[in-house]
């Protein structure tokens, strides 16, 4: 399982990273809230360990934005502030657990494992990237206030790209997931479908979201 640490104290971050790696987790770390938010929105993490006081964007704002973007991954909130009002604020913003500094690593590890044992929440019904909103249950998509008129396969393709936003998907993966067939290297069905989707999703709007990664495939992300 992959965990993201957002902590600006370098010694604390290094200690957490080493301990979690030794416990069998893959670990990424950043020292500022802006990058922490970007990573948490772009990557598929099992859990985020989030400090409250961070440069560029504080932990409160990071947590609030994660929940506003329908990110339901568990968040363990860390802070040196132990006032009841701070704990309540973190929980009300959507933190799954709250740990006050200083703490024993063994307790943090126990809380991490407890959060990961919880039953997974229902997958998000809506995926939003910038002004693109994809309603997975109702099979609707829009950019800003404009409703996108998509054929079933176009919606399936957009849903796949949106759910795995930031991840480069090969033509083989797209063919298997959208058309449920093995990819024929001589076929241009995926490229044609992506071109049609771009006309509806990207051409009338800014920023462009669907990008070609030469030799690898396609990715949906703001640039």
Protein model, in words:
This protein has 223 residues and is α/β, with parallel strands linked by helices. Helix content is 40%, strand content 21%. It has 8 helices and 11 strands. It has helices at 10-22, 33-42, 59-68, 84-93, 105-117, 152-163, 171-179, 189-201; strands at residues 2-6, 26-30, 47-51, 75-79, 97-100, 126-129, 132-135, 140-143, 146-147, 210-213, 217-220. Strands 2-1-3-4-5 form a 5-stranded parallel sheet, with helices on both faces. Strands 6-7-8-9 form a 4-stranded antiparallel sheet, with helices on one face. Strands 10-11 form a two-stranded antiparallel ribbon. α6 (152-163) packs across α7 (171-179) and α6 (152-163) packs across α8. The chain starts with a strand and ends with a strand. The mean pLDDT is 88.
Order of helices and strands: EHEHEHEHEHEEEEHHHEE
- Radius of gyration, taken over Cα atoms and rounded to an integer in Å: 20 Å
Taking the alpha carbons of the first and last residues, their distance comes to: 28 Å
Q: List low-confidence stretches.
A: none
The average pLDDT is 88
Approximate strand percentage = 15-25%
Class inferred from helices and paired strands: alpha/beta
Number of strands: 11
Q: DSSP helix count? A: 8
**Strands across the major sheet, in which order?**
2-1-3-4-5
Question: What spatial form do the alpha-carbon principal axes imply?
Answer: elongated
Largest sheet: 5 strands, parallel
Percent in helix: 40-55%
